[in-house]
Amino acid sequence: MKRHFILAVLIAACFPLSALAQDADQKVRAVATASPGAGELADGEVRKVDRDASKLTIRHGPLPSLDMPTAMTMVYQVRDPAILDQVKSGDKIRFAAEKVGGQFTVIRIEPFK
Could you tell me if 42 and 106 are in contact, meaning their C-beta atoms sit under 8 angstroms apart? Predict the structure, then answer.
């Protein structure tokens, strides 16, 4: 009888864990496919290149995954200063950004095609 009770408890304990794992997996997929953010490319236009400060000013649309629900023009740090050599003011670009050390940072950039 004691074994049956222990088995029932173990089986019951497994069901909520598998449900939580499925829920977490669905949330991860939703974030990954949502809107541009870390790793995903967003459309933008370079407004200013500041090589001395390793920054880009980019005009872009909403980036909900970075908590930017409206279009705006914003200054970004660049992870790799070589990115600054790839663009000039007025260039249409696709870029990926993420929050690094509390600052929004461009991690990847390519020309808009």
Answer: no
**DSSP secondary-structure letter at 71?**
-
Give Cα 89 distance to the centre of its chain. 24
Residue with token string 């020309």: 111
Token reading at 68: 């930017």
**Average pLDDT, consecutive stretches of 10 residues, N- to C-terminus, the chain (113 residues):** 65 59 50 48 96 97 88 96 96 95 95 85
- Element spanning 4, H or E: helix 2-33
What is the C-alpha separation between 16 and 70, in angstroms, rounded?
38
The residue ranges of every structural domain in the chain are 1-33, 42-111
* Domain at 42-111, CATH homologous superfamily: Copper binding periplasmic protein CusF (2.40.50.320)
Both tokens of 95, joined, read: 């870029």
